[in-house]
Predict the 3D structure of the following.
Amino acid sequence: MGGLLPGEAAHVARCVPERRREFTTVRLCARRALARLGERAVALPPGPGGAPRWPDGVVGSMTHCRGYRAAALARRRDVAALGIDAEPAEPLTDGLLETIALPGERAHVRLLLRARPSIAWDRLLFSAKEAVYKTAFTATGTRLGFDDAAITLDPVDGSFRARLALPGITVGGQPRTVLDGRWSAARALLLTAVTLPAAGPAPPAGRR
């Protein structure tokens, strides 16, 4: 299968062509990022839970949606975990917000939609949660549920904050219950990203 290395093709051999293209192109993105880190090209098969297996000393995240593929990588000595997500800039299907959002998040989204209806805030919330969950999974190997992180989106500076309901992320001996991220809305895409530095003081819990 063109573009895939041994150990990768078997994972999508029975998938529909679109899924194979997604799988292939996002790994090409990841291998380009590996090259920028000075790493050789390696197979990136899915590991437990579906997350890719990165080379030793590297952390990363992949994402894809209609018309977009991306990968972000960093040295583990610099970044403990990261997560990225891309979504089409379209509202969620009816009823999905109630499934993925806490009551306070739903109220927050309604206010944002009234103030700035040009952005699909409900799907942006979903994307931010995905980026947070990928980061938490990289850091702990544990999958969060949709009610395990409360997201606040800042409509002014393109940032968001996630407050985790579950402890368990520890970096440099510091427990982390707050993760900060960035978001962007452009070219019919919603993009979110979270980076958890490898060391350093935790951000003040009372910010905002």
